[in-house]
């Protein structure tokens, strides 16, 4: 991965594109995980 | 539509390979909804009665078939379309998966609206199941080609999405149904329409993002091994030639065993925990336990698949089988001494290995059969999942029923099942032990008969012309 940012500087992927792409999938996933953890905590109550 | 063609998806110089995992996750997070389909079961038993089931309403067993058909079709569509996916490239496969998956929801909405269960079986089960199968394998070989240095981690990330899709779908479905429900209407059909539309858009983003590496591309600083190591080949095996190797069938059995052991307890985790610890685990706590298991199922996919890049695939499955055997043997003991913590810990590790087994297997196939047809071979292997989907619940449910009808207390009714599951891991252990490198007579050769046959088939499909051997 360390070599990839160098690639990105040629004419391809920008850091913003990476952030957008990962945010697009990461935010819904984190929301779902947080909901599940909140439910799972009932096991310890 | 030319933008779907494989040659339109070849990455330009400067494309960052870390854009590909989000593309794969766009697909797997959507199709992972299948694990959350049960949230519709209860509302769909009240489509006519609204507040309670009408005699004309659908029953739970009738609704249970929707998921079963979808999982069955998943396995066989992955096997049937595997080579088509491999040769046509990931974008065409993702687009098709999006059409099938969203179409399945829309057809099911019609089925709910006209109250015809067969339309729902066809919509979600068959059409949606095809979307599941094609979508599941669509990014696998592409990820392996982008991450030759860490194939386990790459496929683990995508397949983790399949485990995580239910986390999003479950609360989203409940929220949508609450928005569309009225005193005279349950709101399932509208929820299906919205979810179909949302999933189509989400999956199309994945189809637009995905790229295949250019010919002879490799990560900077990465030197591919010149010679095959003991268990990692540098050659390729043609998709149908893989079926003639014992390695394919050994891995098939290992996956089937691992999934059977996991899937059998996933469906029964809530009831099992309450019956083994009456008075200690309440219904609410059991729901929390199920949520925790889902989380470990998802995290295990990334953790174990990534670990396999360092310790090797064979060693990873060695850990699965040995640890699985020990933990399943320990479960009855935790019940007899009343150790809730021990019981929960056993199943969380087991379920992490269940997910890990799914996520590590594409890299195992790549090690055995090379990268060229790994997606198609993976598709054929997924039939093990379909079979396990039948074996697992049958083992758990019927043995429990048999024990209870023969006077065994409910708290001990699962003990025999646990020992049978442990026995399954012994079978998996033996199969894994026998896995050695694929004999070179199965390898594709550019001027050999196998290679020629494969090239002819590929050229007929008009997709591989000009593509490198491993692109």
What would you note in describing this structure?
The complex is a heterodimer of chains A (45) and B (471). With 45 residues, chain A is mainly alpha-helical. Chain A is built from 2 helices and no strands. Chain A has helices spanning 4-8, 15-40. The longest helix of chain A has 26 residues, at 15-40. Chain B has helices spanning 20-31, 41-44, 60-88, 90-114, 117-137, 140-146, 151-180, 188-209, 239-242, 246-266, 269-276, 283-311, 313-336, 340-369, 374-381, 383-405, 415-433, 449-461. Residues 447-471 of chain B have low confidence and may be disordered. In chain B, helix 4 (90-114) packs antiparallel against helix 5, helix 11 crosses helix 12 (283-311) and helix 14 crosses helix 15. Chain B is globular. Chain B is built from 18 helices and no strands. Chain B folds into 2 domains: 10-216, Growth Hormone, Chain: A; 230-459, MFS general substrate transporter like domains (Growth Hormone, Chain: A, Up-down Bundle), CATH 1.20.1250. Helix content of chain B is 70%, strand content 0%. The chains are: A mainly alpha (45), B mainly alpha (471). At the A-B interface, helix 1 and helix 2 of A face helix 1, helix 7 and helix 12 of B.
């Amino acid at each position: 991965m360390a070599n990839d940012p160098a690639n990105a500087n040629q004419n391809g992927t920008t850091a913003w594109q990476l952030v957008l792409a990962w945010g697009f999938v990461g935010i819904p996933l984190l929301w779902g995980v947080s909901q599940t953890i909140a439910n799972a905590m009932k096991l310890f109550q | 539509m030319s933008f779907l063609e494989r040659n339109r998806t070849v990455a330009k110089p400067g494309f960052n390979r870390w854009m590909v995992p989000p593309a794969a996750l766009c697909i797997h997070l959507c199709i992972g909804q299948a694990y959350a389909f049960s949230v519709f079961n209860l509302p769909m038993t009240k489509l006519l009665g609204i507040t309670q089931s009408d005699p004309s309403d659908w029953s739970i067993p009738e609704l249970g078939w929707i998921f079963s058909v979808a999982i069955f079709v998943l396995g066989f569509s992955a096997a049937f379309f595997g080579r088509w996916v491999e040769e046509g490239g990931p974008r065409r496969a993702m687009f098709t998966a999006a059409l099938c998956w969203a179409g399945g929801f829309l057809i099911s909405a019609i089925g709910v609206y006209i109250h015809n269960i067969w339309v729902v079986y066809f919509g979600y089960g068959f059409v949606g199941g095809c979307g599941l199968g094609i979508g599941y394998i669509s990014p696998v070989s592409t990820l392996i080609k982008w991450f030759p240095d860490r194939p386990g981690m790459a496929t683990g990330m995508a397949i983790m999405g399949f485990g995580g899709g239910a986390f999003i779908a479950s609360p989203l479905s409940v929220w949508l149904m609450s928005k569309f429900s009225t005193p005279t209407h349950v709101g399932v059909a509208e929820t299906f329409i919205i979810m179909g539309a949302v999933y189509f858009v989400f999956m199309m983003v994945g189809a637009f993002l995905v790229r295949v590496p250019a010919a002879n591309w490799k990560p900077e600083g990465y030197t591919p091994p010149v010679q095959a190591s003991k268990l990692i080949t540098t050659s390729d095996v043609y998709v149908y030639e893989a079926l003639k190797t014992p390695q394919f069938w050994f891995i098939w059995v290992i996956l089937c065993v691992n999934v059977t052991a996991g899937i059998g307890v996933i469906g029964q985790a809530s009831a099992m925990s309450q019956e083994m610890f009456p008075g200690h685990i309440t219904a609410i706590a059991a729901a929390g336990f199920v949520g925790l298991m889902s989380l470990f199922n998802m995290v295990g996919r990334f953790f174990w698949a990534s670990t396999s890049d360092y310790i090797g695939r064979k060693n990873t499955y060695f850990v699965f089988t040995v640890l699985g055997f020990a933990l399943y043997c320990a479960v009855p003991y935790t019940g007899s001494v009343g150790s809730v913590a021990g019981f929960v810990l056993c199943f969380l590790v087991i379920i992490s290995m269940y997910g890990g087994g799914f996520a590590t297997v594409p890299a195992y196939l790549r090690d055995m059969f090379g990268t060229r047809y790994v997606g198609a071979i993976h598709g054929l292997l997924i039939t093990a999942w379909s079979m396990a989907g039948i074996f697992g619940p049958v083992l758990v449910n019927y043995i429990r029923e048999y024990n209870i009808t023969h006077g065994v207390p409910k708290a001990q009714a699962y003990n025999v099942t646990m020992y049978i599951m442990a026995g399954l891991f012994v079978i998996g252990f033996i199969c894994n032990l026998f896995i050695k490198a694929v004999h070179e007579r199965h390898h594709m050769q550019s001027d050999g008969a196998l290679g020629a046959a494969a090239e002819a088939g590929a050229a007929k499909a008009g997709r591989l012309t000009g593509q490198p051997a491993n692109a």
